[in-house]
Amino acid sequence: MTQVGFEDANRHSREEPLTGHELRDIKDAADLYQSGSFKLQIDALLPNVRPKESGREQLDRFLFALHTHCISIPSIEPLNPLAAAKALSKQGVAVPFAFPLPSRDVKWKVAFEPPREICIVGSWGNGITVKKQNGSRFGVDLSVEMPEILFQEKDYLDGRFFHKKSYYLAVLAQSISTAFDVDTFYSSVHGDPRLTSLVLRPRNGSTSHDFFKSHAEVHVIPVLSSLSPLSPSRLFPSHSNVRMPSSSSPPSFPTPIYNNAILLSTYANEALKSTHGLKNVLPAFHDAYTLLRVWANQRGYGDGELCVRGFEGKGSFWAGLLRYLISGEELVGTESGSAKLRKPLGKGLSSYQLFKAALDFLAKQKFGETPVFTKTTNGHRCPPEEYITHHPAVFVDATSTINFLSDVPLTSLDLLSHDAKETLEQLSNPGTCSDTFAECFLKNRFKLSSRFDAVIRVDLSQASRNQSTSALVEYGSSDAALLASISSTLRQGLGNRTQAIAILQPVTPCRPISSAESPSTFTVHIGLIYDPAHAFRLVDHGPSAEDQDSNVAKEFRYLWGSRAELRRFKDGRITESVVWEVTTSDERAHIPVSIVQHLLQLHFGISAKYARTLQTPFDSILRLPDDVRCLHRATGGYKAALTAFDGVVKNLKTLDEQLPLALLNVNPISEYLRYTSTFAPLPIPVSASTELPESLRFLPTIPIILEFEKSSKWPDDLKAIQKIKLAFFEIIAQSLMTSNTGLKASVAIDDSSNPFQGCAALEIFTAEGWSFSAFIWHDREATLLDRIIDPSKMFVGPSNQQYNAREQCEAKVAKELYTRRFIHAPRHHRAIANLCHKYSAYSGTVRLVKRWLAAHWLLQPHVSEEAVEIICALPFVGGKQKSTESAATVPHSKERGFSLVLEFLTDWKWEEPLCLPLYKDDPPAAAPEVWTSNGPDAIVVRRLRAFAKEASKALHNAETKIDIKSLFLHSTDDYDIVIQLNPAVLPRYYQNINAESSVWTRDSHLGMTESTPRPGFDPLPLFLADLQTTFADTLKFFADPLGGDRIGAIWLPGLESPRPFRALAGFSSKPLPKGDKAKDKELVMLNRQAVLDDIGRLGAGLVQKIIVHERM
Amino acid sequence: MSNVPKCLSGFTVIPIAYPSSSHFIYARVHAASKSKTFKPNNVLPEGRTLFLVNVPPDATERELILLFKHCGTVERVLFDLNSTDALAEHASDSDEEMAEAAENPDTEARPRKKRKLQTSEPTPPEVIPLPSSSLRTLRKTGSCAHLIFLDSSSLAKALSSPASPKPWPSSEEPRGLSHYMAKYDNERPPLDAIKAHADSFMERFEFDLSKSKQEAKYRKGEAIMDEDGFTLVTRGGAYGQTLGGGVGVASKKFMLTGQTGSIRKKEKKKEKEVFYAFQKAEKQRKALLDLKKNFEADKERVEKLKESRRFKPY
Known about the structure:
The complex is a heterodimer.
Chain A: H1 20-32, H2 36-45, H3 56-71, E1 76-79, H4 81-90, E2 110-112, E3 117-121, H5 122-126, E4 138-146, H6 160-179, E5 182-188, E6 196-202, E7 216-224, H7 256-264, H8 267-281, H9 285-298, E8 307-308, H10 315-327, E9 333-334, E10 337-338, H11 351-364, E11 372-373, H12 384-390, E12 395-396, H13 410-428, H14 436-442, H15 448-451, E13 454-459, H16 469-475, H17 478-494, E14 498-505, E15 511-512, E16 523-530, E17 539-544, H18 551-560, E18 565-568, E19 574-579, H19 585-589, H20 591-604, E20 611-612, H21 615-621, H22 626-632, H23 638-653, E21 663-668, H24 686-691, E22 701-708, H25 718-739, E23 744-749, E24 760-765, E25 771-777, H26 780-789, H27 805-838, H28 842-855, H29 865-877, H30 894-906, H31 938-961, E26 977-981, H32 998-1001, H33 1019-1030, E27 1035-1039, E28 1046-1051, E29 1059-1060, E30 1069-1071, E31 1083-1086, H34 1088-1098, E32 1103-1108
Parallel strand pairs in A: 4-7, 11-12, 22-25
Antiparallel strand pairs in A: 1-2, 3-4, 5-6, 5-15, 6-7, 8-14, 9-10, 13-16, 13-20, 14-16, 17-19, 18-19, 21-22, 23-24, 24-25, 26-28, 26-32, 27-28, 29-31, 30-31
Chain B: E1 7-8, E2 11-17, E3 22-29, E4 49-55, H1 61-67, E5 74-79, H2 81-90, H3 96-103, H4 112-117, E6 143-149, H5 153-159, E7 166-167, H6 176-186, H7 191-215, E8 224-225, E9 231-232, H8 252-257, H9 277-307
Parallel strand pairs in B: 2-7
Antiparallel strand pairs in B: 1-2, 2-3, 3-4, 4-6, 5-6, 8-9
């Protein structure tokens, strides 16, 4: 390539030609990775998650010393296990015996012989360690092979092997802790004493064995030598290896997890070799493994602040997964002949391709149904059916000895599949989110509120633990047995309502070697990801009445307890069923959570008090106080508003004969008619209006647009058009009132000085108490306005007409209003209404976000309602055209939607445009600034981001404290001025987040008994707008439009200093006192106190007091 | 208030006592600027006009009159004249009448000038204004006003520094909450008033339209012809008749751009881009260079991100 175009070389002399090598690199990056920059980012990421070279020498020195020490630990004669433990406990070391504990009169004995061999195994042994979450240290796994003479053939029985192993570990712990200057701990994976290992951490500043710099800790794991007398065939899943002396449990039951735990002790060295082999044949293995682990760590499959149940200490699973993908599947002879085998992947794949293949496998694999057997060299060691019948999920390794997933609940595997699906969606549509790489590898997903549709915090200490001994034996600890049972019960109970159920718990902490038992888990978080098609189903059907006595029916009744009942359904079926009674849509959204709460209560005795969610507090944010609803009497709601709207349309259509033009369309353009207003609309009939106290009287006016047939009768003059509209309104109002008793209509004329602007509206006040305001859309207006704005477009007509600058300016304002109201608003309304129908959680999300913005005094006029609706659509539609409700990234509850929007707002780059495919009919290119032209400005966005950051953090903490309201409380400390208004005269006050009922209960009418209802009257925004225009260059005002009773203001910067006097300064000034220097004579400064007095005067009757926050 | 200067850059400082502070109005004799001497035809008579700066934002004419009552009778008060002038100056002066009419079409009576011209013609119908009640107009803070006294002697009195701050007088127009309520009610006049207003306005509009048609140079159905005898063929009007005359043909697009038809849309590429060997080689080379450039740009971007410690996932 370098020879091409020799004579051109001069022209391109600046750019050096590509070498073949470079070219191949670039091509590879684009072909084998998602894109060139993706590859570069991967390259930048990898070194950050791998151990550094520094400190390695120190570590090696320590390991060598440890090796020498362990080899030379003196033997201990065989002893009775309890006596031996007693001897050790005198030295402060406990023996972590597993259940069932050894009794005093056992015949077998424990002993200690120096280990045969000590190896570095695991990921450190292969040099593929990946950094852990939370700054935990790298784990250096040290396998210590226990001599086979310590064991007998029957040691697989009754936990004898584990007891011997525990004793062996305790002796090592005792010896090492005295010989070395390191911190020693026991660590049990999942709190299972059978999987205990010894953890050695460097002490900072220790003199002899400091490996602090390596940022590593040593895990000493006793393993079973391959020469041990324990026969592998006795450890197949179906074998029962624990004989319980008590009669309560069945005489013998298979102990697959127990068996698997013993087999794990033989696995460490095998795994080392297997992974080493893989690393050699597969150049990209190391990178792919790292990517996979980073991905998994970010999602809690591994060690982190919260860990998905079952994935603690499952490092070997990820290597096993890649091994499976590379070497393929082992044949399983099923009844229906051999199943189709999965083809092994090629060995030349890039790391990214391997990573994606692993995700693809995880996303598609149904672990509950299809077992996975990795290709082995010598065929199955144990009949595969044994695994399939005795383990819920099967993933057998290449040696065919262990099942990686023996103790992983199916719910966790569902979650794994779901997460893989989500990431694949993002990777295959790079346009969806702004930064795929960050979503995939860099962002952690520990913010449960934005990851799960519902998060339930369960207090396990309240659970009744009447577990059978068999379960204890099998699972190793009470917690594990309980969680396994919870997991399977919930999975059964929720069925297809959820795509995934996550049980998350904190990682089991290390404990000092003086304590035998692992601390138990107190709280777990249960996260639900709904399947929108089924999640809110009202009835769960069970088996039909005919097979009442079958096992299925019994199981069904057992699962649901008293809630299960025989019911006859409309189609004639009589089945066992569970019916979830709901009265409001809020309650319907709670069904999955109430199922969880019911099941936890029924089966585990955990009352709803100890299994809490944030849903109810969130609901109450959007609901009016009970006494307000009581006073209002009328039942509002979106459905009722839409019905009222339809009624008005019908009434208008019947007027056809009386109107000079036929009415073509009536378009709604209101948030009240598209499910996105914070509060569901409430009608106030005339009769009720006068009885209500002032602070409950707010009645929203719902704007609608009337579209008449085209006609040439309209005058060709803007002012005349407005007057014709007036005449139209008058006719409609008269005829509406004559044809409908109880309906009132009036014409509202805004006293706008802009002659071109359509400032009149027809106000319709229905008998049920709904208020609408109608505008007439006449499309000729746009053309006429354009002609004023740009006279070159005016080629005909009264050519002597000339327009001055002010008129052009006014025309521009009028045109803006025209396009916003008549062109964009109906289109926006349609798009948003569509979204509400398509995504059940969208409406709730918007309502919450609006409430939140309002509560922080940023909604109207700073951020328009429409802009909020568009921003909230982001987590739902992403950036792509085709998205379905079931897509993995789409939230299905308003709480999650809210949390996602907050996260977006936290780092909202408002300078960058936000493009969403909302409008189907038109490209969004048309006037994108329509909804944001009046703000937010830079100040507001900065505040917004700060609030979002705080709220997002608070929401994260709220999972433990369950206090949602604090998210919606606004601190007024950073305002210079806070204007306290009289809540009793604010018709919207009842919507205030902190509304005090005393305001409307006590008779605080101030002597103004207004008999006429004023639909839509709300003085707060009027006052706010007046203040903002009057003091535009002095102050910036903020207020909560939803029932706020305070207005905050900040002085604009740059007004503090004295400045020369000017006639048109635009602020209220006072001359500087005379006493100052002579040259200051001509200077004036801002007259703050006078401005405050002005504000007080302007708001007479509204303002109670003005609080000034002095700051120096 | 004793240490406040009495005068500032030629303005007299008039302190006003507010409930908890003092407000300051700056006053000066109005002096017409030289550049537009001919302009406001004695709207602001020199010698008896007081120029006020920093009038309270909600001041009404009545309140200012009350404030200066002690100096003499006030003829009228004009608010914010300067800003209006500044805007109006851009437009041509011939248009003044129009602007005035546009400013307040509802309440303003017919312009005087026209009335004189039309003495012989039929009198145009009057526009019945919408009912209006007196409401405060809020102005931007720190704005100015012109106060015209009946007598020039009052001016000197007004400019003499007052002994003590005067309280701000108050007229009966409602403020605050009652203002907003009154405004709400005022914006919803009775239906018959609206009908009367709209009908009379349209009558007047029709009248003006027919008059302008009569006065217009071209009549309906007559072609627009220039001196050379060419007929201007225009578009507009309905059913083949233009407003000014002629036959409507030319398309709107033509009127705007001067381009005709969409024949040129399907324009074929004249030359094959890759025909000669050197073109092909060049294209390949360019593609490679672009590739490299993009790659380098990506690299740079990632480097930048790396600096911001972004790639530490946890």
